[in-house]
Amino acid sequence: MRLVIAMSAKLPAIxxxxxxxxxxxxxxxxxxxxxxxxxxxxxxTQIECSSYRSGLLRTTRIHPAMTxxxxxxxxxxxxxxxxxxxxxxxxxxxPASLPATVVVPEVWPHVPVIAINRNPVFPRFIKLIEISNPxxxxxxxxxxxLNQPYIGVFxxxxxxxxxxxxxxxxxxxxxxxxxxVHEVQDLGNRLRLVVMAHRRIKIVNQIFEDAxxxxxxxxKLTFPLLNxxxxxxxxxxxxSNKVNRRSLRKKAENRVTERTxxxxxxxxxxxxxxxxxxxxxxxxxxxxxxxxxPQSSNQPILMVEVINVTHEKFKQTEEIKALTQELIKxxxxxxxxxxxxxxxxQQMLHQGQRVVDNPVYLSDLxxxxxxxxxxxxxxxxxxxxxxxxxxxxxxxxxxxxxxSKLQQKIGKEVEEKVKxxxxxxxxxxxxxxxxxxxxxxxxxxxxxxxxxREKIRQKTVPKPVMDVLEEELNKxxxxxSHSSEFNVTRNYLDWLTSMPWGVTSTxxxxxxxxxxxxxxxHYGMEDIKKRILEFIAVSQLKGSTQGKILCFYGxxxxxxTSIAKSIARALNREYxxxxxxxxxxxxxxxxxxxxxxxxxxxKVIQCLKKTKTENPLILIDEVDKxxxxxxxxxxxxxxxxxxxxxxxxxxxxxxxxxxxLSKVLFICTANVIDTxxxxxRDRMEMIDMSGYVAEEKLAIAKxxxxxxxxxxxxxxxxxxxxxxxxxxALIKSYCRESGVRSLQKHIEKVHRKVAFKVVKxxxxxxxxxMDNLQDFVGKPMFTxxxxxxxxPPGVVMGLAWTAMGGSTLxxxxxxxxxxxxxxxxxxxxxxxxxxxxxxxxxxxxMTVARxxxxxxxxxxxxxxxxxxxxxxPEGATxxxxxxxxxxxxxxxLSLAKNQAIRQDLAMTGELSLMGKxxxxxxxxxxxxxxxxxxxxxxxxxxxxxxDFNDLPKYITDGLEVHFVSMxxxxxxxxxxxxxxxxxxxxxxxxxxxxxxxxxxxx
Length: 1002
Known about the structure:
Blueprint: H1 11-17, H2 19-27, H3 40-48, H4 64-72, E1 110-116, E2 126-131, H5 134-145, E3 150-155, E4 175-186, E5 191-207, E6 216-223, E7 228-235, H6 245-269, E8 303-308, H7 318-337, H8 339-348, H9 359-369, H10 374-382, H11 386-438, H12 444-455, H13 463-478, H14 484-498, H15 511-521, H16 526-542, E9 549-553, H17 560-571, E10 575-579, H18 587-590, H19 603-611, E11 617-621, H20 634-641, E12 650-651, E13 658-659, E14 665-670, H21 678-682, E15 685-688, H22 694-713, E16 720-722, H23 724-733, H24 741-759, E17 766-768, H25 774-777, E18 795-802, E19 805-817, E20 828-831, H26 836-856, H27 862-865, E21 867-871, H28 885-897, E22 905-907, E23 910-911, E24 917-918, H29 923-932, E25 937-941, H30 945-949, H31 953-956, E26 960-964, H32 967-974, H33 994-997
Parallel strand pairs: 1-3, 9-14, 9-15, 10-11, 11-14, 16-17, 18-22, 20-21, 22-25, 25-26
Antiparallel strand pairs: 1-8, 2-5, 3-4, 4-5, 5-8, 6-7, 12-13, 18-19, 19-21, 23-24
Helix pairs in contact: 7-8, 7-9, 7-11, 9-11, 10-11, 13-14, 15-16, 15-17, 22-23, 22-24, 26-28
């Protein structure tokens, strides 16, 4: 701010006119009068005439901070203004620090609004405030330039409100603090203020502050000796050093001339009476405009009109004294418990400030010392009754005291625990040093090395592994025990020394014991049992055992996983199982490299460490469901592990040393073998585990499932009895799957219901028969053995094989629509959710059937002219495979002949284009499925005779089996009972007998 004081040439005359009065005034006062504080109006007057004391007037640009000091401090007459080096021109807007003032104005109605979020400020306390709003920053800067470093600090009602300025008075509390800015640090985009709180104020109204208006105010210069006041206008917007001094000086000269003339007139009228002139017009643009219209919602509140709020008058009653003493005592207790409060109190207390006998300041001090919520502190700030304010502060201090006690208690407990641990650590270290000096104990690294060497002392470690072990032990001795590499090396040595180098378990080579164990656990499975006994016999003759890779495949629930555990028990080998179903990471097989954090070996190495032997039995479950992802192909990783020529030097990524897996017996399980990669399948010995027939299921239920369910349910033989006819009905009407898992669930369900009856005292013993079976397992799931009890023309029963076992599959053929009058080639439609292979089989079967029908009767053109529809029931189930050609061709000929084939007949086999019957797979499952539905006659390909001969006698008993190599043999078997009268369909046009050609379903 630039302050320019210009006096007219008539001023010396005025001074001479009052010289006598001046000498009289000085003579009546002593020198000590200038050292005593004057009233505020006297100090203001004295300050304003300070430019006159030197006997002349100087034009000076006063700094805003210095102006603030001059407004609120008294000055002696003996003090002189410091000389100015730049002839009254000083640069800068305002200093970074505003000196503390002694006196503040008692009334200051218009203040900028500073809204804070958390703790409110109490009178006589200092607070650091940062302002980031540009409009508010400009306002504070202008107020400081105007020598008005005063603000109003108010608390926001919502702590979530992070706005720098408020939009409504409802966002802040009405009672706040009038504060003076002591120090300003301009950081460019924000201001940092150190403010001193003085008194409580209350918002009366909001004031509109135009940030873009040109502020012009007047500076008053009062001369007490002359009893005259001169007002000089000052423009705040002047910031440049180039000032039109002549115009300002002219304004001042005109104003002084006018005042001098009026003073002379007054002196002529009454020379003894001097009064200040009050009738001169005043121009004051400093006062902001009070907006009578409410501000818009988008206009922030910057200025408010406030009034002073004083506390109610009070007397020093006994209650106030008691509360004061209790406050002081509580503060002392808090300070004694936490030294941090002592530092805070020293910053809050002013020098020379009395606290003990000042309840007003003491209540504010107590509240400010606590860490109470903003609402509680605001309540203390708004309370005008000193007695109530003391009580509120005391309540907050008591809460703070209890919190300090709790903190001290927690701190002592933690400190005691830390001290105890530290003491134990020191004692352990001292004990180590003492034992080391006495030779009773070695160093940590020496002890670790000795432990590792002790672990491998009784093992036959190969030389390559021993070299790596020595190298790692040597590296461990040079590493710091707190380094990460030390832990990595130590973990690697743990795995390396935990491997069963040269350790094998003693195998059972007694055939009789092995047979006994296998028969105890499983019924049937002669192929698997025979293969295991052969393995034992070879090992017995050779004197040593070798690892093998077997693969059991078959439908679910036939006992593939459980037989592996029985084999391990029969061979006296350790058993380890892991599943590769859905596995997509190669590291699960071959391990992670040691460069990764938390690296581990693969499953095989983990198996050897857990079983502590080199010849365990490892079951790899669900090998047909192994996955493949971006991290590699686990099936390819299994190639090295399951290759007898390579697994003697299996290399794990983590161990990175050769490991011998040639003595491990690997057994894999799968439901289908089509999804197993061919190289992996070539490395394994495949053993088929087909489903069970009803006789086998009945035997398994009686010998294994029923006793197991009775034991698990807590029943005894005297409490439950399941008859054989009930088990047979359960197998036939509820559990037709190839395995026995569903049968086991139904038997367990029966035992649970019987246990419930026994506990409720409804029965002491329950007999389960075919008649009351539905009371325990519900209605039958399968009410008919097959879809057609008597097959009509165009329908033939085929045999299929799935992952769930064998099943019967009917082929239906009929006329789709009648032919027209014109002769045209017929069409056929195929439905039933069939695959591409089966669709091709239908085309081949159609060609074979047409050719065979033409050879039998050249006049019969039914298959050429008719629009046929071939359907395979159960369309929701996908069907595919090359085994239904014979069945489809037979169904077409049956429709063309309008004659049903032999009843109780089922067939399977694929056709070539020339009518040759090709071999198929799944003979055992298909035969079991046919016998399950009481089929008496089966047609099989000639080349599958060897597969049929391998079946057990209880499966083949009662079956009439025909092995065929050409389709004409199939035709003779199916239509053996054909009469000559209706052997062939007449040669009439198809349209004439279309209605009679429709098969009858019923």
